[in-house]
Amino acid sequence: MSSVAPQPENSPILACTVSRDVQNFDLLIEDMETALGESWGDLGFAEALAFFGQPEAESLEFIALAIDGEDEDNLVLMGEIIAQAKSRGIKVILIAEDVTPASLHQLLRKGADEFVPYPLPEHELQSAIERLNSPEPEVNQSQHNTAQLKSGSSKEGALIVVHGLAGGTGATTMAVNLAWELTNVDKDDAPSVCLLDLDLQYGSVSTFLDLPRREAVFEMLSDTDSMDEEVFGQALLSFEDKLQVLTAPSDMVPLDIISPEDIERVIEMARAHFDYVIVDMPKTLVQWSETVLQAAHVYFALIELDMRSAQNALRMKRALQSEDLPFNKLRFALNRAPKFTDLSGKSRVKRMGESLGISIDLQLPDGGKQVTQGADHGLPLASSAAKNPLRKELAKLAQSLHDLGRSDAEAA
């Protein structure tokens, strides 16, 4: 048993790093010392398997399995280390640098509890340890039912996408509240609505609606080849028995762990069973962004009246046009738009649209603190602040989208 930090007498070892050479992961050494003082050790791969059987290993709470690109040839050994740890009740934090999504996928399927990229983001190891130690939230099954989908259903639901072009533009707020307004848009003939959180790493739809994140989501996304109505339905959670939600996975997974084909299957399955499918996208463009863009009936690009939104809108425009992708599908929505009486703000909006060569089709008012408070309590604005100006605007948008869908259906 080699040890980076000298062990005080009789101090139990609570954790171990497991790596080819821990000196390659100097930030990990620092973070382990910060989190655990001297109650940790360091093992090589083969040593780890031998050590798990020793009496000293009984105090182990977790291992930090640190791998890089060179370790991809040893995936079977890595998988065995994870399996042996799990069989002894030892949690596994997977720390990876320059490892392909396919390899990460394989190791996460083996049972790694947490994934943290290397170099480690600040405080991320400590957060991962805290998550390991916090008990699983109990799911109240009567409150969060999974969906029972009818096999052979062949609706052709409208796909409405929301994509924030900068952090904090309110994309998740818009996606969640638009989805909820659509479920309530017609009291006599309520449409069925499914909300997909495709921001796989930082998606917070589950937080906004106080829904648990479940393993079933990752399992479904990992094997869409064999996904059927039952598997898809079990990955969904019901919010107040009206809105069906696919939350982001419980672990932070790489955005490219799923392929364009996976996303296509998920969207097709959702559209076949629901009248409206709302997608909350990651800010990052990934290999499957084009799949969603091509399939979308309406694609809202959310911006604010600031320089970073303007620059990102321009970069998005260039990126799509350089690849001959349908940039004209984007409907630019300005969140926290100036009030009707703010004439100088109105002229800034006009100048922004002209200088970027875009049409700002939708202006959403600033909902203020009520928006954050509602999200923190896990409630849509309609429930937490029905008279909020942003809520009223999103209700109007839902009504106009629904009316448009009906008139299209009648015309067809």
Biggest sheet overview: 8 strands, mixed
Strand content: 15-25%
Distance N terminus to C terminus?
Answer: 72 Å
CATH topology of the largest domain: Rossmann fold
Structural category is: alpha/beta
What is the count of distinct domains?
A: 2
Q: How would you write the strand order of the largest sheet?
A: 8-9-7-10-6-11-12-13
Count of individual beta strands: 13
GO molecular function, one term: ATP hydrolysis activity
Keywords: ATP-binding, Nucleotide-binding
Domain AAA: 159-311
GO biological process, one term: negative regulation of cell division
Secondary structure layout plus pairing:
Layout: E1 15-19, H1 26-36, E2 40-43, H2 45-51, E3 62-68, H3 75-87, E4 91-97, H4 101-110, E5 114-117, H5 124-133, E6 158-164, H6 171-183, E7 193-197, H7 205-208, H8 215-222, H9 229-235, E8 237-239, E9 243-246, H10 260-273, E10 276-280, H11 289-295, E11 298-303, H12 307-322, E12 330-337, H13 343-356, E13 360-365, H14 369-376, H15 381-384, H16 389-411
Parallel strand pairs: 1-2, 1-3, 3-4, 4-5, 6-10, 6-11, 7-9, 7-10, 11-12, 12-13
Antiparallel strand pairs: 8-9
Helix pairs in contact: 2-3, 3-4, 6-16, 8-9, 10-11
What's the short version?
The chain has 412 residues and is α/β, with parallel strands linked by helices. The longest helix has 23 residues, at 389-411.
Characteristics:
alpha/beta, 13 strands, eight-stranded mixed sheet, Rossmann fold, 412 residues, 2 domains, five-stranded parallel sheet, 16 helices, single chain
What does this structure look like?
The chain contains 16 helices and 13 strands. The protein has an eight-stranded mixed β-sheet with strand order 8-9-7-10-6-11-12-13, sandwiched between helices. 41% of the residues lie in helices and 17% in strands. Mean pLDDT is 89; it is low at 4-8 and 139-143. The termini are far apart. Helix 2 runs parallel beside helix 3, helix 6 (171-183) crosses helix 16 and helix 8 (215-222) runs antiparallel to helix 9. The protein has two domains: 15-133, Rossmann fold; 158-411, P-loop containing nucleotide triphosphate hydrolases (Rossmann fold). The protein has helices spanning 26-36, 45-51, 75-87, 101-110, 124-133, 171-183, 205-208, 215-222, 229-235, 260-273, 289-295, 307-322, 343-356, 369-376, 381-384, 389-411, and strands at 15-19, 40-43, 62-68, 91-97, 114-117, 158-164, 193-197, 237-239, 243-246, 276-280, 298-303, 330-337, 360-365. The protein is globular. With 412 residues, the protein is α/β, with parallel strands linked by helices. The longest helix has 23 residues, at 389-411.
